[in-house]
UniProtKB/TrEMBL annotation:
Family named by the database record: Belongs to the anamorsin family.
InterPro entries: Anamorsin (IPR007785), Anamorsin_N_metazoan (IPR049011), CIAPIN1 (IPR046408), SAM-dependent_MTases_sf (IPR029063)
Protein name: 11838_t:CDS:1
Motif mapping: Cx2C motif 1: 276-279
Source organism of this protein record: Funneliformis geosporum
Length: 315
Protein backbone atom coordinates (compact mmCIF):
# COMPACT_ATOMS: atom_id res chain seq x y z
CA UNK A 1 0.00 0.00 0.00
CA UNK A 2 1.08 3.60 -0.56
CA UNK A 3 1.44 6.25 2.12
CA UNK A 4 1.33 9.37 -0.03
CA UNK A 5 -0.72 11.18 2.63
CA UNK A 6 2.18 10.95 5.14
CA UNK A 7 4.33 14.10 5.22
CA UNK A 8 7.87 14.61 6.62
CA UNK A 9 7.93 15.05 10.38
CA UNK A 10 4.71 13.04 10.94
CA UNK A 11 4.34 10.58 13.79
CA UNK A 12 2.71 7.36 12.59
CA UNK A 13 1.34 4.41 14.57
CA UNK A 14 0.85 0.97 12.97
CA UNK A 15 -1.51 -1.45 14.75
CA UNK A 16 -0.43 -5.08 15.01
CA UNK A 17 -3.38 -7.39 15.65
CA UNK A 18 -3.23 -11.14 16.23
CA UNK A 19 -3.94 -11.71 12.53
CA UNK A 20 -1.46 -9.22 11.06
CA UNK A 21 1.30 -10.34 8.72
CA UNK A 22 4.71 -9.45 10.31
CA UNK A 23 6.39 -9.12 6.92
CA UNK A 24 3.79 -6.56 5.77
CA UNK A 25 4.24 -4.60 8.99
CA UNK A 26 8.04 -4.46 8.61
CA UNK A 27 7.77 -3.42 4.97
CA UNK A 28 5.29 -0.65 5.82
CA UNK A 29 7.47 0.64 8.66
CA UNK A 30 10.58 0.80 6.43
CA UNK A 31 8.65 2.74 3.77
CA UNK A 32 7.19 5.17 6.30
CA UNK A 33 10.53 5.87 7.99
CA UNK A 34 11.87 7.17 4.66
CA UNK A 35 8.82 9.41 4.23
CA UNK A 36 8.72 10.97 7.73
CA UNK A 37 12.54 11.52 7.67
CA UNK A 38 14.59 11.86 10.83
CA UNK A 39 12.16 14.43 12.26
CA UNK A 40 9.27 11.96 12.25
CA UNK A 41 8.39 8.79 14.11
CA UNK A 42 6.98 5.36 13.16
CA UNK A 43 5.93 2.89 15.88
CA UNK A 44 4.22 -0.51 15.89
CA UNK A 45 1.90 -1.31 18.80
CA UNK A 46 -0.17 -4.39 19.51
CA UNK A 47 -3.92 -4.06 19.76
CA UNK A 48 -3.96 -5.58 23.27
CA UNK A 49 -1.65 -2.83 24.61
CA UNK A 50 -3.97 -0.18 23.21
CA UNK A 51 -6.96 -1.73 24.99
CA UNK A 52 -5.02 -1.66 28.26
CA UNK A 53 -4.57 2.09 27.88
CA UNK A 54 -0.75 2.24 27.84
CA UNK A 55 -0.49 4.59 24.87
CA UNK A 56 0.35 8.28 25.48
CA UNK A 57 -2.29 10.89 24.71
CA UNK A 58 -2.06 13.34 21.81
CA UNK A 59 1.08 11.83 20.28
CA UNK A 60 0.46 10.51 16.76
CA UNK A 61 -0.67 12.28 13.60
CA UNK A 62 -1.79 9.13 11.77
CA UNK A 63 -2.94 5.61 12.81
CA UNK A 64 -3.29 2.58 10.51
CA UNK A 65 -5.22 -0.44 11.77
CA UNK A 66 -6.26 -3.72 10.09
CA UNK A 67 -4.15 -2.95 6.99
CA UNK A 68 -1.44 -5.57 7.34
CA UNK A 69 -3.00 -8.97 6.69
CA UNK A 70 -5.70 -10.74 4.77
CA UNK A 71 -7.91 -11.22 7.83
CA UNK A 72 -9.69 -8.44 9.73
CA UNK A 73 -11.58 -8.12 13.00
CA UNK A 74 -13.98 -5.53 14.37
CA UNK A 75 -12.89 -2.76 16.75
CA UNK A 76 -14.98 -2.17 19.86
CA UNK A 77 -15.92 1.27 21.15
CA UNK A 78 -13.21 1.27 23.84
CA UNK A 79 -10.49 0.67 21.24
CA UNK A 80 -11.81 3.40 18.96
CA UNK A 81 -11.83 5.80 21.91
CA UNK A 82 -8.18 4.94 22.63
CA UNK A 83 -7.32 5.74 19.01
CA UNK A 84 -8.97 9.13 19.41
CA UNK A 85 -7.06 9.82 22.63
CA UNK A 86 -3.62 9.00 21.26
CA UNK A 87 -4.11 11.11 18.11
CA UNK A 88 -3.17 14.79 18.17
CA UNK A 89 -5.97 17.28 17.44
CA UNK A 90 -6.64 17.05 13.72
CA UNK A 91 -5.06 13.57 13.52
CA UNK A 92 -6.32 10.94 11.06
CA UNK A 93 -7.39 7.32 11.59
CA UNK A 94 -7.20 4.86 8.67
CA UNK A 95 -9.29 1.81 9.46
CA UNK A 96 -10.38 -1.39 7.73
CA UNK A 97 -13.16 -3.50 9.19
CA UNK A 98 -15.68 -6.16 8.13
CA UNK A 99 -19.30 -4.99 8.05
CA UNK A 100 -22.62 -6.56 7.09
CA UNK A 101 -25.02 -5.39 4.42
CA UNK A 102 -27.95 -6.72 6.46
CA UNK A 103 -28.08 -7.76 10.10
CA UNK A 104 -29.52 -10.95 11.55
CA UNK A 105 -26.58 -13.38 11.83
CA UNK A 106 -26.51 -14.28 15.51
CA UNK A 107 -23.67 -16.83 15.22
CA UNK A 108 -20.95 -14.30 14.29
CA UNK A 109 -19.32 -11.41 16.22
CA UNK A 110 -19.89 -8.89 13.40
CA UNK A 111 -23.02 -6.97 14.31
CA UNK A 112 -22.54 -3.68 12.45
CA UNK A 113 -23.32 -2.18 9.11
CA UNK A 114 -21.23 0.62 7.61
CA UNK A 115 -23.56 3.23 9.09
CA UNK A 116 -23.33 1.52 12.49
CA UNK A 117 -19.53 1.74 12.29
CA UNK A 118 -19.74 5.45 11.47
CA UNK A 119 -22.02 5.89 14.48
CA UNK A 120 -19.47 4.18 16.76
CA UNK A 121 -16.71 6.41 15.41
CA UNK A 122 -18.83 9.48 16.16
CA UNK A 123 -19.40 8.32 19.71
CA UNK A 124 -15.64 7.79 20.07
CA UNK A 125 -14.95 11.44 19.15
CA UNK A 126 -14.20 11.32 15.41
CA UNK A 127 -15.54 13.65 12.69
CA UNK A 128 -15.29 14.14 8.89
CA UNK A 129 -15.75 10.55 7.70
CA UNK A 130 -14.80 9.25 4.28
CA UNK A 131 -15.69 5.75 3.05
CA UNK A 132 -13.10 4.89 0.41
CA UNK A 133 -13.66 1.22 -0.39
CA UNK A 134 -16.25 -1.43 0.35
CA UNK A 135 -15.24 -4.75 -1.21
CA UNK A 136 -17.01 -8.08 -0.93
CA UNK A 137 -15.11 -10.71 1.05
CA UNK A 138 -14.27 -13.56 -1.33
CA UNK A 139 -15.45 -17.12 -0.77
CA UNK A 140 -12.07 -18.55 0.36
CA UNK A 141 -11.25 -15.56 2.58
CA UNK A 142 -14.67 -15.88 4.18
CA UNK A 143 -13.98 -19.47 5.19
CA UNK A 144 -10.64 -18.43 6.76
CA UNK A 145 -12.26 -15.59 8.71
CA UNK A 146 -14.98 -17.88 10.09
CA UNK A 147 -12.44 -20.44 11.31
CA UNK A 148 -9.31 -18.43 12.23
CA UNK A 149 -10.74 -15.09 13.37
CA UNK A 150 -14.09 -16.11 14.80
CA UNK A 151 -12.99 -19.55 16.03
CA UNK A 152 -15.87 -21.54 14.48
CA UNK A 153 -14.45 -25.00 13.65
CA UNK A 154 -17.60 -27.09 13.25
CA UNK A 155 -17.59 -28.07 9.58
CA UNK A 156 -21.37 -28.10 9.11
CA UNK A 157 -21.82 -24.76 10.88
CA UNK A 158 -18.90 -23.24 8.99
CA UNK A 159 -20.30 -24.42 5.67
CA UNK A 160 -23.72 -22.94 6.42
CA UNK A 161 -22.17 -19.61 7.43
CA UNK A 162 -20.05 -19.42 4.28
CA UNK A 163 -23.09 -19.83 2.06
CA UNK A 164 -25.30 -17.43 4.07
CA UNK A 165 -22.63 -14.71 4.49
CA UNK A 166 -21.25 -14.78 0.97
CA UNK A 167 -22.15 -11.44 -0.57
CA UNK A 168 -23.32 -10.07 2.80
CA UNK A 169 -19.89 -9.54 4.44
CA UNK A 170 -17.86 -6.63 3.09
CA UNK A 171 -14.50 -5.16 4.04
CA UNK A 172 -14.86 -1.38 4.29
CA UNK A 173 -12.10 1.25 4.49
CA UNK A 174 -12.95 4.37 6.51
CA UNK A 175 -10.92 7.55 7.04
CA UNK A 176 -11.91 9.53 10.15
CA UNK A 177 -10.46 12.67 11.73
CA UNK A 178 -10.09 13.81 15.27
CA UNK A 179 -11.42 17.36 15.86
CA UNK A 180 -8.89 20.18 15.88
CA UNK A 181 -9.24 20.46 19.67
CA UNK A 182 -8.93 18.18 22.66
CA UNK A 183 -12.03 16.83 24.37
CA UNK A 184 -12.82 19.05 27.36
CA UNK A 185 -10.82 22.01 26.05
CA UNK A 186 -12.12 25.47 26.98
CA UNK A 187 -11.68 28.82 25.25
CA UNK A 188 -12.42 32.35 26.42
CA UNK A 189 -15.07 34.15 24.38
CA UNK A 190 -13.75 37.19 22.50
CA UNK A 191 -15.89 39.58 24.54
CA UNK A 192 -14.78 38.21 27.94
CA UNK A 193 -13.22 40.91 30.14
CA UNK A 194 -9.67 40.38 31.34
CA UNK A 195 -8.15 41.35 34.67
CA UNK A 196 -4.71 42.83 35.19
CA UNK A 197 -3.07 39.38 35.33
CA UNK A 198 -4.68 38.33 32.03
CA UNK A 199 -7.33 35.99 33.41
CA UNK A 200 -10.96 36.39 32.49
CA UNK A 201 -13.56 37.49 35.00
CA UNK A 202 -17.00 36.00 35.38
CA UNK A 203 -19.87 38.45 35.46
CA UNK A 204 -22.80 37.51 37.67
CA UNK A 205 -25.94 36.84 35.76
CA UNK A 206 -28.56 39.57 36.11
CA UNK A 207 -31.22 36.87 36.21
CA UNK A 208 -29.75 35.06 39.23
CA UNK A 209 -32.21 34.89 42.13
CA UNK A 210 -31.02 34.67 45.72
CA UNK A 211 -32.21 35.39 49.24
CA UNK A 212 -30.41 38.73 49.34
CA UNK A 213 -32.71 41.77 49.27
CA UNK A 214 -30.06 43.62 47.24
CA UNK A 215 -31.05 41.61 44.20
CA UNK A 216 -34.49 43.31 44.03
CA UNK A 217 -35.54 46.91 43.33
CA UNK A 218 -37.45 48.81 46.02
CA UNK A 219 -40.79 49.40 44.30
CA UNK A 220 -41.59 52.40 46.54
CA UNK A 221 -38.58 54.21 45.14
CA UNK A 222 -39.99 53.89 41.63
CA UNK A 223 -42.83 56.34 42.48
CA UNK A 224 -42.45 60.12 42.55
CA UNK A 225 -44.37 62.47 44.88
CA UNK A 226 -46.72 63.35 42.03
CA UNK A 227 -47.66 59.68 41.62
CA UNK A 228 -48.90 59.55 45.22
CA UNK A 229 -51.34 62.51 44.88
CA UNK A 230 -55.00 61.42 44.52
CA UNK A 231 -56.46 62.94 41.34
CA UNK A 232 -59.35 65.40 41.46
CA UNK A 233 -62.63 64.05 40.04
CA UNK A 234 -63.10 67.13 37.90
CA UNK A 235 -59.85 66.42 36.08
CA UNK A 236 -61.21 63.07 34.92
CA UNK A 237 -64.04 64.64 32.85
CA UNK A 238 -63.30 65.35 29.26
CA UNK A 239 -63.34 69.07 28.47
CA UNK A 240 -65.92 68.66 25.71
CA UNK A 241 -68.49 66.96 28.02
CA UNK A 242 -71.44 69.16 29.06
CA UNK A 243 -71.43 69.39 32.84
CA UNK A 244 -73.73 71.16 35.27
CA UNK A 245 -77.53 70.99 35.37
CA UNK A 246 -79.02 68.10 33.53
CA UNK A 247 -76.57 65.38 32.60
CA UNK A 248 -76.01 65.13 28.90
CA UNK A 249 -73.44 63.05 27.08
CA UNK A 250 -71.24 64.73 24.53
CA UNK A 251 -70.79 63.49 20.99
CA UNK A 252 -68.49 60.47 20.77
CA UNK A 253 -68.73 60.02 24.54
CA UNK A 254 -66.09 57.62 25.86
CA UNK A 255 -66.47 58.08 29.63
CA UNK A 256 -69.50 55.77 29.98
CA UNK A 257 -72.09 58.55 30.54
CA UNK A 258 -73.92 57.77 27.28
CA UNK A 259 -74.51 54.15 28.32
CA UNK A 260 -75.63 55.23 31.77
CA UNK A 261 -78.21 57.71 30.41
CA UNK A 262 -79.49 55.13 27.93
CA UNK A 263 -80.23 52.71 30.76
CA UNK A 264 -82.04 55.43 32.75
CA UNK A 265 -84.24 56.36 29.77
CA UNK A 266 -85.63 52.84 29.33
CA UNK A 267 -88.90 52.18 31.24
CA UNK A 268 -88.87 49.51 33.90
CA UNK A 269 -90.39 46.21 32.69
CA UNK A 270 -93.92 45.50 33.86
CA UNK A 271 -94.57 42.61 36.18
CA UNK A 272 -96.12 39.66 34.37
CA UNK A 273 -99.50 39.09 36.05
CA UNK A 274 -102.69 37.43 34.92
CA UNK A 275 -105.11 39.98 33.46
CA UNK A 276 -108.11 37.74 32.78
CA UNK A 277 -108.62 35.69 35.97
CA UNK A 278 -110.82 33.34 34.00
CA UNK A 279 -108.51 30.36 33.66
CA UNK A 280 -110.91 28.03 35.55
CA UNK A 281 -113.79 28.64 33.14
CA UNK A 282 -112.28 26.76 30.19
CA UNK A 283 -110.49 27.42 26.90
CA UNK A 284 -113.22 29.75 25.64
CA UNK A 285 -112.28 32.25 28.36
CA UNK A 286 -108.45 31.71 28.41
CA UNK A 287 -105.85 33.90 26.76
CA UNK A 288 -103.29 32.60 24.25
CA UNK A 289 -100.52 32.24 26.85
CA UNK A 290 -102.67 30.56 29.52
CA UNK A 291 -100.89 27.55 31.11
CA UNK A 292 -104.25 25.72 31.34
CA UNK A 293 -104.91 25.65 27.61
CA UNK A 294 -106.34 22.27 26.59
CA UNK A 295 -107.47 21.39 30.10
CA UNK A 296 -111.07 21.10 31.31
CA UNK A 297 -112.64 23.78 33.42
CA UNK A 298 -112.28 23.52 37.18
CA UNK A 299 -113.40 25.15 40.41
CA UNK A 300 -111.06 27.83 41.73
CA UNK A 301 -108.71 26.26 44.30
CA UNK A 302 -109.36 22.76 43.01
CA UNK A 303 -106.38 20.55 42.15
CA UNK A 304 -106.43 19.68 38.45
CA UNK A 305 -106.04 15.92 37.81
CA UNK A 306 -105.99 14.47 34.30
CA UNK A 307 -108.07 11.30 34.07
CA UNK A 308 -108.39 8.34 31.74
CA UNK A 309 -105.40 7.55 29.49
CA UNK A 310 -104.37 11.14 28.72
CA UNK A 311 -100.94 10.66 30.33
CA UNK A 312 -100.18 7.42 28.46
CA UNK A 313 -98.11 7.14 25.29
CA UNK A 314 -100.17 6.54 22.12
CA UNK A 315 -97.59 4.07 20.75
Amino acid sequence: MSFTQVSPGSKVLLINSSHSDPSQLDEAKSLLLRQVTENGLVNIETLSRIVQGDLPNSTYNIIYTNYFGTLASAHNTATLSKFASTLVPGGILYLKEPVLLTLGFAEIPITRTTQDLIGELKLSGFVDFEIRNATKVEFNDLANIIEQVWGITDENKKKDLVHSLYGQLHLVEVVAKKPAYEIGASFALPFAKKTANGSTTKKASIWTLSNDDDEFEDEDQLLDDEDLVKPDKSTLIRPDCETGGKKKACKNCSCGLAEELEKESKPAPKAQTSSCGSCYLGDAFRCSTCPYLGMPSFTPGEKVVLGGNMMQDDL
